[in-house]
Automatic annotation (TrEMBL):
Pfam families: Bac_DnaA (PF00308), Hda_lid (PF22688). InterPro entries: DnaA_dom (IPR013317), Hda (IPR017788), Hda_lid (IPR055199), P-loop_NTPase (IPR027417). GO terms for biological process: DNA replication initiation; negative regulation of DNA-templated DNA replication initiation. Residues 18-155 form the Chromosomal replication initiator protein DnaA ATPAse domain. PANTHER family: CHROMOSOMAL REPLICATION INITIATOR PROTEIN DNAA (PTHR30050), DNAA REGULATORY INACTIVATOR HDA (PTHR30050:SF5). It comes from Candidatus Kentrum sp. DK. This is Regulatory inactivation of DnaA Hda protein. Residues 168-231 form the Hda lid domain.
Length: 234
Protein backbone atom coordinates (compact mmCIF):
# COMPACT_ATOMS: atom_id res chain seq x y z
CA UNK A 1 0.00 0.00 0.00
CA UNK A 2 1.35 3.39 -0.96
CA UNK A 3 1.61 5.63 2.09
CA UNK A 4 -0.53 8.75 1.91
CA UNK A 5 1.19 12.09 1.59
CA UNK A 6 1.46 13.72 5.01
CA UNK A 7 -0.62 16.84 5.38
CA UNK A 8 1.14 20.07 6.26
CA UNK A 9 0.34 21.51 9.66
CA UNK A 10 -0.16 25.29 9.45
CA UNK A 11 1.58 27.64 11.83
CA UNK A 12 -0.59 29.36 14.43
CA UNK A 13 -1.93 32.54 12.84
CA UNK A 14 -0.71 34.66 15.73
CA UNK A 15 2.86 33.90 14.70
CA UNK A 16 2.30 35.14 11.15
CA UNK A 17 -0.04 38.10 11.25
CA UNK A 18 0.45 40.47 14.15
CA UNK A 19 -1.53 43.74 13.90
CA UNK A 20 0.71 46.67 12.98
CA UNK A 21 0.44 50.08 11.37
CA UNK A 22 1.98 48.59 8.23
CA UNK A 23 -0.82 46.08 7.71
CA UNK A 24 -3.63 48.44 8.72
CA UNK A 25 -5.58 49.52 5.65
CA UNK A 26 -6.68 52.97 6.76
CA UNK A 27 -9.07 53.91 3.95
CA UNK A 28 -11.33 56.61 5.44
CA UNK A 29 -9.57 56.26 8.81
CA UNK A 30 -6.23 57.86 7.98
CA UNK A 31 -6.66 60.65 10.54
CA UNK A 32 -7.33 58.17 13.33
CA UNK A 33 -4.43 55.92 12.32
CA UNK A 34 -2.06 58.90 12.26
CA UNK A 35 -3.22 60.06 15.70
CA UNK A 36 -2.79 56.58 17.19
CA UNK A 37 0.66 56.25 15.64
CA UNK A 38 1.64 59.57 17.20
CA UNK A 39 0.37 58.50 20.62
CA UNK A 40 2.31 55.24 20.33
CA UNK A 41 5.44 57.28 19.74
CA UNK A 42 4.78 59.60 22.66
CA UNK A 43 3.76 62.66 20.65
CA UNK A 44 0.45 64.44 20.18
CA UNK A 45 -2.59 64.04 22.41
CA UNK A 46 -2.02 62.03 25.58
CA UNK A 47 -5.55 60.56 25.67
CA UNK A 48 -7.31 59.26 22.57
CA UNK A 49 -10.74 57.67 22.27
CA UNK A 50 -11.68 55.63 19.18
CA UNK A 51 -15.25 54.65 18.46
CA UNK A 52 -17.06 52.89 15.67
CA UNK A 53 -19.00 49.77 14.83
CA UNK A 54 -17.53 46.30 15.16
CA UNK A 55 -15.01 45.41 12.48
CA UNK A 56 -13.71 48.91 11.77
CA UNK A 57 -10.20 48.24 13.09
CA UNK A 58 -10.28 49.52 16.67
CA UNK A 59 -8.60 46.47 18.21
CA UNK A 60 -6.08 46.37 15.36
CA UNK A 61 -4.98 49.94 16.06
CA UNK A 62 -4.75 49.37 19.80
CA UNK A 63 -2.53 46.33 19.31
CA UNK A 64 -0.49 48.13 16.65
CA UNK A 65 0.08 51.00 19.10
CA UNK A 66 1.35 48.58 21.74
CA UNK A 67 3.68 46.97 19.21
CA UNK A 68 5.09 50.33 18.08
CA UNK A 69 5.61 51.60 21.63
CA UNK A 70 7.36 48.36 22.60
CA UNK A 71 9.64 48.61 19.57
CA UNK A 72 10.68 52.02 20.88
CA UNK A 73 11.44 50.58 24.34
CA UNK A 74 8.33 52.17 25.83
CA UNK A 75 6.29 49.91 28.12
CA UNK A 76 2.83 49.32 26.65
CA UNK A 77 -0.13 47.25 27.80
CA UNK A 78 -3.23 46.07 25.92
CA UNK A 79 -6.28 45.44 28.09
CA UNK A 80 -9.71 44.18 27.12
CA UNK A 81 -12.71 45.07 29.24
CA UNK A 82 -13.92 41.55 28.53
CA UNK A 83 -11.57 40.72 31.43
CA UNK A 84 -12.32 43.62 33.81
CA UNK A 85 -10.99 41.86 36.93
CA UNK A 86 -7.52 41.81 35.37
CA UNK A 87 -7.64 45.59 35.01
CA UNK A 88 -8.61 46.13 38.64
CA UNK A 89 -6.14 43.60 40.02
CA UNK A 90 -3.08 45.10 38.31
CA UNK A 91 -4.11 48.75 38.06
CA UNK A 92 -1.15 50.17 40.00
CA UNK A 93 1.29 48.15 37.89
CA UNK A 94 -0.30 49.33 34.65
CA UNK A 95 0.01 52.95 35.77
CA UNK A 96 3.79 52.75 35.28
CA UNK A 97 3.42 51.99 31.56
CA UNK A 98 4.17 54.60 28.92
CA UNK A 99 0.99 53.57 27.10
CA UNK A 100 -2.15 51.73 28.20
CA UNK A 101 -4.69 50.62 25.58
CA UNK A 102 -8.18 49.73 26.83
CA UNK A 103 -10.45 47.91 24.39
CA UNK A 104 -14.22 47.29 24.50
CA UNK A 105 -14.85 49.90 27.17
CA UNK A 106 -18.59 49.81 26.40
CA UNK A 107 -18.76 46.50 28.25
CA UNK A 108 -18.11 48.29 31.54
CA UNK A 109 -20.56 51.13 30.93
CA UNK A 110 -23.14 51.19 33.70
CA UNK A 111 -21.00 49.19 36.15
CA UNK A 112 -19.98 51.90 38.57
CA UNK A 113 -17.41 49.77 40.40
CA UNK A 114 -15.58 48.83 37.20
CA UNK A 115 -15.84 52.37 35.87
CA UNK A 116 -14.25 53.64 39.08
CA UNK A 117 -11.29 51.34 38.47
CA UNK A 118 -10.80 52.77 34.98
CA UNK A 119 -11.13 56.29 36.37
CA UNK A 120 -8.42 55.65 38.98
CA UNK A 121 -6.16 54.22 36.27
CA UNK A 122 -6.79 57.34 34.18
CA UNK A 123 -5.73 59.55 37.08
CA UNK A 124 -2.61 57.49 37.80
CA UNK A 125 -1.53 57.68 34.16
CA UNK A 126 -2.15 61.42 34.13
CA UNK A 127 0.04 61.86 37.20
CA UNK A 128 2.87 59.81 35.70
CA UNK A 129 2.55 61.20 32.17
CA UNK A 130 1.47 57.96 30.53
CA UNK A 131 -0.65 57.79 27.40
CA UNK A 132 -4.13 56.28 27.25
CA UNK A 133 -5.83 54.84 24.18
CA UNK A 134 -9.45 53.75 24.61
CA UNK A 135 -11.84 52.11 22.15
CA UNK A 136 -15.56 51.45 22.17
CA UNK A 137 -18.53 51.03 19.88
CA UNK A 138 -20.15 54.28 21.01
CA UNK A 139 -18.92 57.79 21.76
CA UNK A 140 -18.02 58.68 25.36
CA UNK A 141 -21.31 60.55 25.69
CA UNK A 142 -23.32 57.72 24.12
CA UNK A 143 -21.69 54.81 25.95
CA UNK A 144 -23.81 55.28 29.06
CA UNK A 145 -21.14 55.67 31.73
CA UNK A 146 -22.66 55.95 35.19
CA UNK A 147 -19.57 57.63 36.65
CA UNK A 148 -19.83 61.22 35.52
CA UNK A 149 -16.15 61.98 36.11
CA UNK A 150 -15.04 59.14 33.83
CA UNK A 151 -17.44 60.19 31.10
CA UNK A 152 -16.27 63.80 31.25
CA UNK A 153 -12.58 62.82 31.12
CA UNK A 154 -13.08 60.63 28.07
CA UNK A 155 -15.28 63.22 26.37
CA UNK A 156 -12.46 65.74 26.80
CA UNK A 157 -10.03 63.40 25.01
CA UNK A 158 -9.37 63.48 21.28
CA UNK A 159 -12.40 61.49 20.07
CA UNK A 160 -12.18 59.98 16.58
CA UNK A 161 -14.59 57.76 14.71
CA UNK A 162 -13.54 54.73 12.68
CA UNK A 163 -15.59 54.04 9.54
CA UNK A 164 -16.03 50.73 7.69
CA UNK A 165 -13.88 50.17 4.63
CA UNK A 166 -15.46 50.51 1.22
CA UNK A 167 -15.26 47.62 -1.24
CA UNK A 168 -11.87 48.66 -2.58
CA UNK A 169 -10.53 48.93 0.95
CA UNK A 170 -11.83 45.46 1.77
CA UNK A 171 -10.07 44.06 -1.30
CA UNK A 172 -6.81 45.68 -0.24
CA UNK A 173 -7.21 44.42 3.32
CA UNK A 174 -7.82 40.84 2.14
CA UNK A 175 -4.84 40.98 -0.23
CA UNK A 176 -2.62 42.37 2.53
CA UNK A 177 -3.64 39.68 5.01
CA UNK A 178 -3.19 36.92 2.44
CA UNK A 179 0.34 38.13 1.67
CA UNK A 180 1.24 38.29 5.34
CA UNK A 181 0.08 34.77 6.09
CA UNK A 182 1.84 33.50 3.01
CA UNK A 183 -0.49 32.73 0.13
CA UNK A 184 -1.82 34.34 -3.03
CA UNK A 185 -5.42 35.47 -3.32
CA UNK A 186 -6.56 36.37 -6.82
CA UNK A 187 -8.92 39.23 -7.61
CA UNK A 188 -11.44 36.67 -8.86
CA UNK A 189 -11.49 34.85 -5.51
CA UNK A 190 -11.74 38.13 -3.60
CA UNK A 191 -14.72 39.21 -5.72
CA UNK A 192 -16.30 35.80 -5.14
CA UNK A 193 -15.91 36.18 -1.37
CA UNK A 194 -17.34 39.69 -1.37
CA UNK A 195 -20.38 38.51 -3.35
CA UNK A 196 -21.09 35.32 -1.43
CA UNK A 197 -20.06 35.92 2.19
CA UNK A 198 -20.62 38.24 5.12
CA UNK A 199 -18.86 41.48 4.23
CA UNK A 200 -17.77 42.65 7.67
CA UNK A 201 -14.00 42.46 8.08
CA UNK A 202 -13.87 40.08 11.09
CA UNK A 203 -15.97 37.54 9.17
CA UNK A 204 -13.90 37.97 6.01
CA UNK A 205 -10.60 37.64 7.89
CA UNK A 206 -11.86 34.56 9.72
CA UNK A 207 -12.87 33.00 6.42
CA UNK A 208 -9.53 33.90 4.88
CA UNK A 209 -7.75 32.13 7.72
CA UNK A 210 -9.89 29.04 7.09
CA UNK A 211 -9.02 29.14 3.39
CA UNK A 212 -5.32 29.49 4.19
CA UNK A 213 -5.41 26.53 6.56
CA UNK A 214 -7.34 24.41 4.07
CA UNK A 215 -4.91 25.15 1.21
CA UNK A 216 -1.99 24.10 3.41
CA UNK A 217 -3.65 20.92 4.62
CA UNK A 218 -5.00 19.87 1.22
CA UNK A 219 -2.02 21.22 -0.75
CA UNK A 220 -4.33 23.01 -3.18
CA UNK A 221 -4.47 26.53 -4.54
CA UNK A 222 -7.13 29.00 -3.43
CA UNK A 223 -9.24 28.85 -6.59
CA UNK A 224 -12.94 29.64 -6.83
CA UNK A 225 -13.91 25.93 -7.09
CA UNK A 226 -11.82 25.13 -4.02
CA UNK A 227 -13.26 28.04 -2.03
CA UNK A 228 -16.81 27.14 -3.11
CA UNK A 229 -16.22 23.57 -1.95
CA UNK A 230 -14.89 24.82 1.38
CA UNK A 231 -17.89 27.10 1.90
CA UNK A 232 -20.28 24.21 1.25
CA UNK A 233 -18.58 22.27 4.05
CA UNK A 234 -18.88 25.09 6.58
Amino acid sequence: MTPSTPKQIPLPLGLRNEPSFTNFISGPNREAATAVEGLAGGVGDRVLYLWGEHGTGKSHLLRAACQRATQQDRAAIYLSCRMPDLIEKNRDEYAHAALVCIDDIDILAGNREKETGIFHLYNLLETKGGGLLVAGVKTPTGAGFSLRDLGSRLTAALVLRLHPLDEDGKRRALQCRAREIGFTLSDEVINFLLRRCNRDMPSLFSLLDRIDEATLVEKRRATIPFVRELLEQM
